[in-house]
Amino acid sequence: MSAAGNALRVVRLLHEHDELRVLEVAARLGVARSTAHRILAMLVFEGFAEQDRHKVYRPGPALRAIRGSRAAPPPDLITLARPHLQRLADIVRETTHLTVLEGNATRFLDGVEGPQALRVTHRTGALLPAHVTSGGKALLAELPPERLRMLYPNGLPGGKSKAPEDVQRLVAELTTVRRAGWALNLQESERGVNAVGACVRDRTGRAVAAVAVAAPSARCPKGRLNRLASPLLLAARDIGQEL
């Protein structure tokens, strides 16, 4: 009962304050730092909390859903991003997407199709495994390795072997993504489609969404994707500055 009570108190604290650190939780509950860390780790695993790259805990998707309207992305995110998605699509002449992370999946919030006859359609509303999308990888790369492993306790979804090595390979790939500043999807979410994605950061530096450019693989091999990263990063920066 004591453990359950402490967990519920932390959920209430997250609801009231929107961000917490381990030391703050330990002080408020009157428990050891290791105990506070275990409680927060359990809430992260269950989706009630999220941890950013600064080791700050915030309300997770499960808590945001309970909070009702606050579960949705900020209402101005899609509106602010739309002209930047359009401008990016005009510049690169390919389809652009705006996505967010939902657990270990990627939610497509908006998209602008490229002007060419052979193009990738937008996927607005779709939910795909984050580890096979460029925007999803960019956002996963922001998570600490221990948090990442919590998202995949049974291996990667859709994998045949469900081997722990699959998650370890993903961790290694995301390390490269973090260094580069963008992520690639080479026909991983759909055959014949390649994409490059990068994080949108708010003014505190926290990744809140991702922007991606998707194109037919025949026209956009890996080399061209790397060249598209430059205008993509500029668009992601411009959206973040308006948040």
Short description:
47% of the residues lie in helices and 20% in strands. It has 243 residues and is α+β, with helices and mostly antiparallel strands.
Describe, in plain words, how this protein is organized in 3D.
- With 243 residues, the protein is α+β, with helices and mostly antiparallel strands.
- Helices cover 47% and strands 20% of the residues.
- It has 9 helices and 8 strands.
- The chain has helices at residues 2-17, 22-29, 33-45, 61-66, 75-92, 134-140, 145-151, 164-180, 222-242, and strands spanning 49-51, 57-59, 95-102, 105-112, 127-129, 183-186, 193-201, 207-216.
- A 6-stranded antiparallel beta sheet has the order 5-4-3-8-7-6, sandwiched between helices. Strands 1-2 form a two-stranded antiparallel sheet.
- A hairpin with a 2-residue loop joins β3 (95-102) and β4 (105-112).
- α2 (22-29) packs across α3 and α5 runs antiparallel to α9.
- The longest helix has 21 residues, at 222-242.
- It is elongated and about 60 Å long.
- Residues 69-74 have low confidence and may be disordered.
- Residues 55-243 form the IclR-ED domain.
- Residues 1-61 form the HTH iclR-type domain.
- This is IclR family transcriptional regulator.
